[in-house]
Design a protein that fits this description.
Strand content: under 5%
Shape: flat
Helix content: over 70%
Largest sheet: 2 strands, antiparallel
Order of helices and strands: HEEHHHHH
Radius of gyration: 22 Å
Number of strands: 2
Number of helices: 6
Mean pLDDT: 94
Distance between the termini: 48 Å
Strand order of the largest sheet: 1-2
């Protein structure tokens, strides 16, 4: 567990350093019209580095040799991971909304063991509301597939 904490905190601290570096490039000061583009990313990156330093300090002081994950703990993690990977893969071919409907329905039925009526209702309404919010209200195009093309979007 200690090694996993050290590696993760180190990686995230480097990522925070990258954010800070790029934020400085954008400008971290205060302009006449408010904060410059890098102001908030700079402070978020700095906070991330401080938090990672605290994790690194705690992990370095700890001397336990417990494993990061046991076989019993890995099962539920994989039950979440595989459907999420399938969602990302299906988004390429089916579009975000259809892939999200399939993911939501599958996950609700397999993990949540919800009734079919609830599964179908949520699996249809959730992507539909998401479509209306992003495509119609915010005018942000999301990845679309053959169904949206058939419907004229």
């Amino acid at each position: 567990m200690r090694l996993a904490d050290l590696l993760t905190a180190s990686f995230l601290a480097l990522l925070g350093g990258l954010v800070v570096f790029d934020a400085v490039r954008l400008g971290i000061g205060w302009g006449t019209d408010g904060p410059q583009s890098g102001f908030f990313p700079f402070w978020l990156g700095a906070l991330m580095i401080v938090a990672c330093a605290a994790v690194l300090f705690q992990a370095a002081r700890r001397s336990d040799g417990t494993s990061f994950v046991t076989r019993q703990q890995l099962g539920p993690v994989l039950k979440v991971l595989w459907p999420a990977i399938a969602l990302v893969a299906l988004t390429h071919w089916l579009g975000l909304y259809v892939a999200a409907a399939l993911y939501t329905g599958f996950y609700m039925r397999w993990i949540g063991r919800h009734a079919w009526l609830t599964v179908l209702g949520v699996a249809i309404l959730f992507p539909l509301v998401t479509f209306l919010v992003f495509e119609k209200w915010f005018l942000v195009p999301m990845p679309k597939g053959p169904l949206e093309a058939w419907l004229g979007y």
